[in-house]
Amino acid sequence: MTGVRVRAMRADEHEAFRAIRLRMLADAPTAFGERLADAERVPDAEWRIRATRMTRLGRAAVIAEDDDGWCGIMRGHYSPVRGPELVGVYVDPRARGRAAGVADRLLAEIVAWAIDMGGDTLTLDVHEHNARAIAFYRGRGFVPTGHTQPYPLDPTTREVEMRRALTTP
Question: Do 97 and 132 meet the contact criterion of CB atoms below 8 Å apart?
Fold first, then answer.
């Protein structure tokens, strides 16, 4: 996919963040721990807070954009318990696939952030039924740790913890 730019999200981009978040929730309802109907009711002031929070120290928010707008996002969060975590991963259907390279470019930025944070691993949780995401993560060196937890929106299903070692480029 040509013409895709990858960069850090800015705190003032709450409207674009809201738009991609709603697309994420519509496209993959079990992937993000929030229901679309709930997110649609979030007031603008809260979207501003969310966008600002994602750009603070200890966090990273990286977006991919093309001439049609944002086509991907990945976020990092530093957990005092698990270290750097990968969260909020989404690539729009128009930008998916290894040939497009959007997910790999976003992940490279989050990996660089995690290394800068002093991490030696990067951890994530993925819904057990999200086969596409699990395959992507496995192909990038993530392996299940054996730890699972109930998925908050449906405790009859599980989130699988995956982790990969970080190496400096």
Answer: no
SS3 content of the chain, % helix, strand, coil (to 5): 35, 35, 30
How far is Cα 48 from Cα 62, in angstroms, rounded to an integer?
17
Q: Residues 54-81: pLDDT tens digits?
A: 888 789 999 999 999 999 999 999 999 9
Pairing of strands 59-66, 154-165: unpaired
Question: pLDDT > 90: what percent of the chain?
Answer: 84
State pTM to two decimals.
Answer: 0.92
- Position 80, amino acid: P
- Distance CA(38)–CA(15), nearest Å, equals 17
